[in-house]
């Protein structure tokens, strides 16, 4: 998040004073910061994927199932003890910094850390108390509960890291986030997994290695934050007796928005719990091996949502409905086209991707990856529907849709998992993602004025659908060798891009790319959207 005022000790804008100069400076810093974080995210993605592949190959299927089962609790624990989104914390820290309310700024940081530690302690005590019951009833491998007692501590460590990350974001320090979040911890985990692949190691050694990497990264964040506050002169404002912890102000805003996390928790954690109970750790291993690959279909969507938010906000403020309609569907097509290469690998060509990454043992998991990829790709290809509803003040509708989708996902999990195992999980998740987006699209039409589907943008979606069907047919009929499969994906992705180049006009929605020489001609590609 770009800062709105100069922080103590920061460099001010150069040139003559005036209203325009600070705006340009802030915009430039925002773009550079977003670029740094995007580059870091790509590095982290590569390291995390490589680490997962090494661990899957290192452990037996049963051992990986145990590890994945215990690790799957992390996101749910992290969400509960954090009591809200990281973006909400950034919002309040920005407001307090702008108003020079350092008593509230430091008080909010202390409040969040204490809340996280207290919540983690309560959950740990609860797990200890229920350990005997869970080991005998929750899953067919009792050692998974013992491993959970270790890996659960990653959640509070990462939650505290989010507090530091929000602080660095407020003070425009993306390089600190880049090093700690995207390089240090993923790098340690990858190095550790690489060593274990050579010398060997048990699932317990892998778990302690994961936890150690998180601890090292958190210590690094603490040191970096202390040095930053001292260098900026902010420690002069830190007085323990005068700290103000705005519980009602922060939590009153964040708790209602926890509904947005319910769907992910039901997909990522509850489904794994039920899968472990009804089907066993082998089904958990199959599901958790392919889940991160399927979520890659959300990479472009998640990364560039930050750029779409101010665009939607400005158009809403101007009452520009026609502009909002065109910008929405133009952006949705952009997401659909540039996410297609990932979808082609994880959807139509899931069989080749699964085997090359995880080996023949996980060949049966390819169908899981394919179905789950369809759900995540539909979520990305339909655009920023929930975000657009929120920027137009329709937050209550978004919350209702999220609650309904979470309820459907939970119901499908109880219905399908006992009968179908891991296949039931991915079918339920895909249905949930598609249903959520359909409901949000209906909300756009009725509450914002954006059509559920804009026929003027039908051609790109038809091209993508036809290309996907063709790839799936080739895979099913010929089962080509891996190099041929990946070559077909590359050619299909290029064909989809070229066929839709006149529709994309990237510079219309993301004018920042005009600053990048290699993309300048692409951003200026002729042809109005939709033609």
Quaternary state reads single chain
Compute the gyration radius: what is it? 24 Å
Number of strands: 0
User: Which sheet architecture does the biggest sheet show?
Assistant: none
Percent of residues in helical segments?
Answer: over 70%
Query: What is the domain tally?
Result: 2
Percent of residues in beta strands? under 5%
Low-confidence stretches: 1-31, 526-531
Distance between the termini: 35 Å
The run of helices and strands is: HHHHHHHHHHHHHHHHHHHHHHHH
Please explain how this structure is put together.
The protein is mostly helical and 531 residues long. It folds into two domains: 27-245, no CATH class; 276-531, no CATH class. Helices cover 79% and strands 0% of the residues. The chain is built from 24 helices and no strands. The longest helix is centred in the first third of the chain and has 39 residues, at 20-58. The protein is globular. The two termini are 35 Å apart.
What is shown here, in short?
The chain has helices at 20-58, 61-71, 73-82, 86-98, 102-137, 143-151, 154-170, 174-199, 203-231, 247-254, 259-278, 281-295, 299-318, 321-346, 350-358, 366-381, 385-391, 395-420, 422-448, 458-478, 482-499, 501-504, 506-509, 517-523. By secondary structure, it is mostly helical.
């Amino acid at each position: 998040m770009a800062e709105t005022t100069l922080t103590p000790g920061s460099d001010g804008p150069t040139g003559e004073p005036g209203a325009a100069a600070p705006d340009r400076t802030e915009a430039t810093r925002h773009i550079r910061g977003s670029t740094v974080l995007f580059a870091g995210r790509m590095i982290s993605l590569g390291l995390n994927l490589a680490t997962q592949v090494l661990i899957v190959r290192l452990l037996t299927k049963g051992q990986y199932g145990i590890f994945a089962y215990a690790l799957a609790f992390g996101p749910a624990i992290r969400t509960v003890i954090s009591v809200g989104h990281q973006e909400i914390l950034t919002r309040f820290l920005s407001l307090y910094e702008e108003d020079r309310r350092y008593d509230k700024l430091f008080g909010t940081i202390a409040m969040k850390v204490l809340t996280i530690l207290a919540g983690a302690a309560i959950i740990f005590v609860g797990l200890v108390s229920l350990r005997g019951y869970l080991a005998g009833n929750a899953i067919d491998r009792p050692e998974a509960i013992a491993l959970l007692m270790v890996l659960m501590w990653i959640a509070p460590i990462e939650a505290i890291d989010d507090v530091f990350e929000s602080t660095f974001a407020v003070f425009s320090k993306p390089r600190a986030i880049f090093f700690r979040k995207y390089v240090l911890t993923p790098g340690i985990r990858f190095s550790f997994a690489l060593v274990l692949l050579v010398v060997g190691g048990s699932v317990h050694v892998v778990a302690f290695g994961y936890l150690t990497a998180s601890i090292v990264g958190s210590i690094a964040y603490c040191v970096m934050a202390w040095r930053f506050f001292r260098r900026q002169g902010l420690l002069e404002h830190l007085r323990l007796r005068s700290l103000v912890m705005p519980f009602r102000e922060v939590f009153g805003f964040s708790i209602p928005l926890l509904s947005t996390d319910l769907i992910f928790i039901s997909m990522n954690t509850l489904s794994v719990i039920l899968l472990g109970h009804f089907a066993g750790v082998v089904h958990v291993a199959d599901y958790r091996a392919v889940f991160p690959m399927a979520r890659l279909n959300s990479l472009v969507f998640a990364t560039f949502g930050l750029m779409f938010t101010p665009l939607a906000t400005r158009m809403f403020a101007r009452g520009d409905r026609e502009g909002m309609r065109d910008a929405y569907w133009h952006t949705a097509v952009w997401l659909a086209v540039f996410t297609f290469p990932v979808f082609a690998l994880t959807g139509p060509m899931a069989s080749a991707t699964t085997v090359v990454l995880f080996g023949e043992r996980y060949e049966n998991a390819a169908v899981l990856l394919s179905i789950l990829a369809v759900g995540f790709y539909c979520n990305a290809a339909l655009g920023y529907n929930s975000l657009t509803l929120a920027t137009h003040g329709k937050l209550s509708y978004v919350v209702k849709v999220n609650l309904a989708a979470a309820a459907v996902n939970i119901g499908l999990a109880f219905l399908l998992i006992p009968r179908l195992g891991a296949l039931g999980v991915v079918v339920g998740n895909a249905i949930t993602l598609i249903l959520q987006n359909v409901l949000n699209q209906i909300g756009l039409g009725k509450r914002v004025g954006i059509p559920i589907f804009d026929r003027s943008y039908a051609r790109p979606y038809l091209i993508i659908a036809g290309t996907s069907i063709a790839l799936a047919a080739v895979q099913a009929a010929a089962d080509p060798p891996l190099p041929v499969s990946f070559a077909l994906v590359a050619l299909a992705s290029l064909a989809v891009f070229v066929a839709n180049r006149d529709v994309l006009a990237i510079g219309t929605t993301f004018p920042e790319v005009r600053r990048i020489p290699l993309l300048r001609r692409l951003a200026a590609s002729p042809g109005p959207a939709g033609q």
